[in-house]
Amino acid sequence: MSRREELAQNLAEVEERIAKACENAGRDRAEVMLLAVTKTWPASDVEILYELGLRNFAENRDQEAGAKVGQLRHLVEARWHMVGRLQRNKAKSVVEWADQVDSVDSVRLAEALAKAAHARGQKLDVLLQVSMDGDTSRGGCAVQDVPELAGAITRSGDLILRGAMTVAPLTMEPSQAFEALASVVSGLRDDHPTATGVSAGMSGDLEDAISHGSTCVRVGTALLGSRRLTSP
User: Fold this and answer.
1) Which residues contact 21 (CB under 8 A, 6 or more apart)?
2) Per the database record, which ranges form the Alanine racemase N-terminal domain (predicted)?
3) How confident is the model over 194-210, as a mean pLDDT?
């Protein structure tokens, strides 16, 4: 089986899962974006997925992503997300390639991204990353800190708050984490009307996430396999 055939088969299976989950939840399939997590996979795989119809791709390491996106500038409709933990000193380089940063978890990081976006003269879409169990050592801000962080993002004028993201922690049932995230986003919308996105669910739990209102599922393994490369 060629790599294109493999990816096409995987994509069809993931699409079927998403469609079925939406049907079971009484939701429109168009409400859920499939974000292909292409970290550690070569640019050639992104090209194939693009040809198969995907437009949204995610990376988690700035250096790898910068090189990969540079190779793929000809994919003019591709939209790139930064989903990994991000240090403030990487803000300037990340805004060179990312259309959206999904892992903003502190006021200081938001300020660094806003400064970098301002220097480029281009607004940057962001998601708050929320730690549903409060263990911020693994990334994400605590739930009680969400209003302060959301306010800092909105006041910056250079960032557009698009919603929130979480990774289901091992200490909670995924459904519990996803339901809690949906509640966080619901609370944000009154003061931040652009914050409508709920990014939750990955290869193993996307159905659960969709049933709890996820508008974006981040899928790597189910699309690309478990093989990992060391360079783009």
Assistant:
1) 32, 206, 207, 210, 211
2) 11-226
3) 97
The pLDDT of residue 230 is 46
pLDDT score at 70: 97
Angstrom distance (rounded) from CA 112 to CA 151:
15
Residue indicated by tokens 């996307």: 206
Model confidence pLDDT, tens digit, residues 107-141: 999 999 999 999 999 999 999 999 999 988 889 99
Angle, in degrees to the nearest 10, between helices 43-51 and 3-25: 60
Q: Measured on CA atoms in the order 143, 56, 126, 211, is the torsion positive or negative? A: negative
Exposure string for 24-56, b = 16+ CB within 10 A, e = fewer: ebebeeeebbbbbbbbbbbbebbbbbbebebeb
Pairing of strands 100-104, 79-82: parallel
How far, in Å, CA of 163 to CA of 196, rounded?
Answer: 5
* pLDDT tens digit sequence for 171-187: 899 999 999 999 999 99
4 CB-near residues (< 8 Å, 6+ apart): 48, 51
Other C-beta atoms lying within 10 Å of the C-beta of residue 216:
23
The secondary structure element, H or E, covering residue 7 is helix 3-25
Q: At what angle do helices 107-120 and 146-156 cross, to 10 degrees?
A: 20
Helix 174-189 with 146-156: angle, nearest 10 deg: 50
Closest CA to 139 of 86, 215, 95, 98: 86
The whole-chain average pLDDT of the chain stands at 95
